[in-house]
């Protein structure tokens, strides 16, 4: 038996949209659990990624980017951020080298936390050493966090060192989840997220933000997983766009999603996609609950 005490804790990954929170979580966990696109508001939920070792368990939470809520959907997204912060033993406040913090509300909120805050300056692959040093000085002055780490989540630069610091700061505690668990979310969640990622990549303007995906059927057979999923849009005109001329657009989304699902589940996938109009689902509390935004 090992003599080292067991450590476990919750690490909350928060920050503005698009700074690389999901990329970082995937790098830290070593699995693609969170979808990533160049669009803001890609992440709508709190997604836990669990990293297990013999004598530690780190429960990361990837969260939606912090924004001023405009819809009931946004309010639910921000409540995911709040609970994640409340649970945190360590906070990873992600910024990137482009970020200009003009509003101070995020910083004020974080300064109330009485757990270590590691401020990350991400995307340093796109900056000079001088620019990075300037950002370090800026954040030191502005916020004085527990630690500052310049990293590149995309290129795995500085991620190992960050992980070592997390292990050192982690409290002594038994594991919170079974040691073979990778996430708190069910398989269906990852199915809908993969489809949402392809929607974000294939459509422009407001379309991706008007879509939500519900998995109606997930049937695992010996050789294949059969999946039926429904894409909700807010208006009839959007339905036409999502389906596309002769169904080509939707077919493309389905093909791309299937490839990723086969990789994720390591199994052949049959995917059936439908589009339905659910008027104004982003402001409809009942529909939001059905879509899993009930926190
Ligand atoms: N150049 C560069 N781009 C990055 C890095 N990390 C993330 N990105 C990109 O930034 C965009 C947003 O990433 P994502 O993880 O979805 O950000 P989130 O909204 O904070 O979760 C994507 O296009 C990523 O590929 C990095 O270290 N360097
Ligand atoms: Mg994200």
Automatic annotation (TrEMBL):
<keyword id="KW-1003">Cell membrane</keyword>
<feature type="domain" description="KH type-2">
    <location>
        <begin position="195"/>
        <end position="279"/>
    </location>
</feature>
<dbReference type="InterPro" id="IPR030388">
    <property type="entry name" value="G_ERA_dom"/>
</dbReference>
<dbReference type="InterPro" id="IPR009019">
    <property type="entry name" value="KH_sf_prok-type"/>
</dbReference>
<dbReference type="InterPro" id="IPR006073">
    <property type="entry name" value="GTP-bd"/>
</dbReference>
<dbReference type="InterPro" id="IPR015946">
    <property type="entry name" value="KH_dom-like_a/b"/>
</dbReference>
<feature type="region of interest" description="G4">
    <location>
        <begin position="122"/>
        <end position="125"/>
    </location>
</feature>
<comment type="subunit">
    <text>Monomer.</text>
</comment>
<protein>
    <recommendedName>
        <fullName>GTPase Era</fullName>
    </recommendedName>
</protein>
<keyword id="KW-0690">Ribosome biogenesis</keyword>
<feature type="binding site">
    <location>
        <begin position="15"/>
        <end position="22"/>
    </location>
    <ligand>
        <name>GTP</name>
    </ligand>
</feature>
<dbReference type="InterPro" id="IPR027417">
    <property type="entry name" value="P-loop_NTPase"/>
</dbReference>
<dbReference type="GO" id="GO:0003924">
    <property type="term" value="F:GTPase activity"/>
</dbReference>
<feature type="region of interest" description="G5">
    <location>
        <begin position="151"/>
        <end position="153"/>
    </location>
</feature>
<feature type="region of interest" description="G2">
    <location>
        <begin position="41"/>
        <end position="45"/>
    </location>
</feature>
<dbReference type="InterPro" id="IPR004044">
    <property type="entry name" value="KH_dom_type_2"/>
</dbReference>
<feature type="binding site">
    <location>
        <begin position="122"/>
        <end position="125"/>
    </location>
    <ligand>
        <name>GTP</name>
    </ligand>
</feature>
<dbReference type="GO" id="GO:0005525">
    <property type="term" value="F:GTP binding"/>
</dbReference>
<keyword id="KW-0694">RNA-binding</keyword>
<dbReference type="GO" id="GO:0043024">
    <property type="term" value="F:ribosomal small subunit binding"/>
</dbReference>
<keyword id="KW-0472">Membrane</keyword>
<dbReference type="GO" id="GO:0000028">
    <property type="term" value="P:ribosomal small subunit assembly"/>
</dbReference>
<feature type="domain" description="Era-type G">
    <location>
        <begin position="7"/>
        <end position="172"/>
    </location>
</feature>
<dbReference type="InterPro" id="IPR005662">
    <property type="entry name" value="GTPase_Era-like"/>
</dbReference>
<comment type="similarity">
    <text>Belongs to the TRAFAC class TrmE-Era-EngA-EngB-Septin-like GTPase superfamily. Era GTPase family.</text>
</comment>
<feature type="binding site">
    <location>
        <begin position="62"/>
        <end position="66"/>
    </location>
    <ligand>
        <name>GTP</name>
    </ligand>
</feature>
<dbReference type="InterPro" id="IPR005225">
    <property type="entry name" value="Small_GTP-bd"/>
</dbReference>
<keyword id="KW-0963">Cytoplasm</keyword>
<dbReference type="Pfam" id="PF07650">
    <property type="entry name" value="KH_2"/>
</dbReference>
<keyword id="KW-0699">rRNA-binding</keyword>
<keyword id="KW-0342">GTP-binding</keyword>
<dbReference type="GO" id="GO:0005829">
    <property type="term" value="C:cytosol"/>
</dbReference>
<feature type="region of interest" description="G3">
    <location>
        <begin position="62"/>
        <end position="65"/>
    </location>
</feature>
<dbReference type="GO" id="GO:0005886">
    <property type="term" value="C:plasma membrane"/>
</dbReference>
<feature type="region of interest" description="G1">
    <location>
        <begin position="15"/>
        <end position="22"/>
    </location>
</feature>
<dbReference type="Pfam" id="PF01926">
    <property type="entry name" value="MMR_HSR1"/>
</dbReference>
<keyword id="KW-0547">Nucleotide-binding</keyword>
<comment type="function">
    <text>An essential GTPase that binds both GDP and GTP, with rapid nucleotide exchange. Plays a role in 16S rRNA processing and 30S ribosomal subunit biogenesis and possibly also in cell cycle regulation and energy metabolism.</text>
</comment>
<dbReference type="GO" id="GO:0070181">
    <property type="term" value="F:small ribosomal subunit rRNA binding"/>
</dbReference>
């Amino acid at each position: 038996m090992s003599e080292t005490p067991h450590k476990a804790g919750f690490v909350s990954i928060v920050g503005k949209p698009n700074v690389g929170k999901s990329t970082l979580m995937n790098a830290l966990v070593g699995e693609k659990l969170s979808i990533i696109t160049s669009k803001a508001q890609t992440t709508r939920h709190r997604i836990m990624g669990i990293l297990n070792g013999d004598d530690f368990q780190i429960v990361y939470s990837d969260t939606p980017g912090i924004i001023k809520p405009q819809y009931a959907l946004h309010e639910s997204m921000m409540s995911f951020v709040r609970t994640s912060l409340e649970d945190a033993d360590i906070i990873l406040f992600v910024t990137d080298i482009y970020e200009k913090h003009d509003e101070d509300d995020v910083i004020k909120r974080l300064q109330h936390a009485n757990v270590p805050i590691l401020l990350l300056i991400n995307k340093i692959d796109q900056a000079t050493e001088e620019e990075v040093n300037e950002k370090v000085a800026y954040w030191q002055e502005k916020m004085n966090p527990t630690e500052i780490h310049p990293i590149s989540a995309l290129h795995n630069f500085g991620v190992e060192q960050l992980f070592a610091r997390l292990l050192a700061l982690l409290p002594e505690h038994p594991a919170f989840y079974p040691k073979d668990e990778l996430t708190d979310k069910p398989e269906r969640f990852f199915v809908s997220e993969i489809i949402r990622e392809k929607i974000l990549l294939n459509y422009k303007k407001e379309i991706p933000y008007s879509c939500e995906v519900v998995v109606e059927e997930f049937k695992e057979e010996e050789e294949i997983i059969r999946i039926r999923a429904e894409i909700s849009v807010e208006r009839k005109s959007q339905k036409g766009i999502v389906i596309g001329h002769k169904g080509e657009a939707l077919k493309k989304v389905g093909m791309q999603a299937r490839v990723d699902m086969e990789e994720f589940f390591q199994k052949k996938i049959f995917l059936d996609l439908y589009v339905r109009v659910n008027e104004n689902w982003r402001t409809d509390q009942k529909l939001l609950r059905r879509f899993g935004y009930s926190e």
